[in-house]
Design a protein that fits this description.
Bound molecules: BIS(adenosine)-5'-pentaphosphate, zinc ion
CATH architecture: 3-Layer(aba) Sandwich
Region (LID): 126-163
Helix content: 40-55%
Number of helices: 9
Strand order of the largest sheet: 2-3-1-4-8
CATH class: Alpha Beta
Order of helices and strands: EHEHHHEHEHEEEHHEH
Pfam family, one: ADK
Radius of gyration: 16 Å
Binding site for Zn(2+): 130, 133, 150, 153
Organism: Roseburia amylophila
Function: Catalyzes the reversible transfer of the terminal phosphate group between ATP and AMP. Plays an important role in cellular energy homeostasis and in adenine nucleotide metabolism.
Shape: globular
Length: 214
Amino acid sequence: MKIIMLGAPGAGKGTQAKQIADKYSIPHISTGDIFRANIKNGTELGKKAKQYMDQGALVPDELTCDLVMDRIQQDDCKNGFVLDGFPRTIPQAEALDAALGKINEKMDYAIDVDVPDENIVNRMSGRRACLNCGATYHLISIPPKVEGICDRCGSEIVLREDDKPETVQKRLKVYHEQTQPLIDYYKNQGILKSVDGTQPMDEVFKAIVTILGA
Ligand code: AP5
Ligand code: ZN
């Protein structure tokens, strides 16, 4: 099963993608997580990506597409994968379709997690992320067991640089201009499904399982 998660920044794509990956035993591929790991490890890619990410801008397609195309050709992707944060522009979606087309494959579902902008800023200001293992928390809805510490790996959890309110506004603007057109793109392909992302997390997940099948 090959799935794309669509939705505004903070809509809950990552939260749902992790659960989908567990339930259906497919890899979770998050371009945001890949870039953040590269930043942490000080790679050339990380240095380039950071300049864009900290501003709330998109990393250029030429740095992003090859990375994903290489990843989805790895062995663990044979039975499918869930893409989180990619594609984010029409050229990225076209590059993905072209790469899959070459091996006679196509995406099965594009799931749009729909959350209005008003809810987003609140969610992001409460989000805390572990820069070591990628786990995500929310100060109110999913607090860690010990304040400020990741349950999974014991590292410190922090407010992401791009979750500051002024950067969130910029990311929302970029989302509406560059990513939202993908909703029509996948609607035209007949694979778009929408879920109400304002519901509690487990309700959102139930709605997704209803779409994908148990
Ligand atoms: P990325 O990491 O992909 O960020 P994003 O799309 O902005 O998404 P987020 O990770 O912010 O949110 P999410 O939807 O996954 O929500 P989450 O589940 O964490 O990208 C970061 C940057 O990298 C981009 O700005 C760009 O610069 C670059 N980049 C990445 N991919 C790129 C690409 N393809 N092309 C170019 N550039 C790229 O949830 C958010 C919070 O809400 C959490 O605290 C969570 O606990 C909480 N929450 C989740 N669900 C619920 C719920 N149902 N109810 C209440 N709270 C909830
Ligand atoms: Zn951790």
